[in-house]
Amino acid sequence: MKKTTVLVVLFIFPLVAYLFFASGVNNFGRLPILTEKVNDLPQSPDSVKLDGQITILGFLGNKIEQRKGNVFNLNQKIYKRFNGFKDLQFVMVAPEGSEENVQALKKELGSFTDTQNWKFVYSTPSEIKELFESLQTNLNLDDSLFTPYVFIIDKERNLRGRNDDEDEGVKYGFNTSSVADLNNKMEDDVKIILAEYRLALKKNNADSSQ
Asked: Which Gene3D superfamilies does the record cross-reference, listed alphabetically (predicted)?
């Protein structure tokens, strides 16, 4: 009896768990589209665009020094976990004139992180507001053009999120002031959208080889 119990724990339970989670990815592995076709980014010297990329989009505002904690939280909990995945970029939008402060922030990040996939885009206040409003969320930018929330944008420029969140109902973004929100919700949702595109790529490759 004891040997049977050990075998179940070591072999059968992990197999059942794997099949359960594998079926979950296949059946429930799409992150809902909350807003279609948000605005693309303002023109930048580095030609950073939303089209064709999975983007974590944030709005830094012009008080960069006060927002370092938010960026560092996102960096530690999400960026380091997923940096290196193809077609995934982290984009922070900041007002024109904040370039020097942003570069100082990026340099500080670079002391403990590979910042290759951190992208910073500068624009006018009106363009920043237009971009944010195109997300069509229930959130707001503050007077400095900052929000602690970041957003998942897919390759077709659709805002992805949750339409049945247990706490918020419709969850448009993830609060970088809350480590719990990043750990418990955003990490899961980023996994889902990456898996969605990987599965689509595998299917396309399989179809093209037939």
From this structure: Glutaredoxin
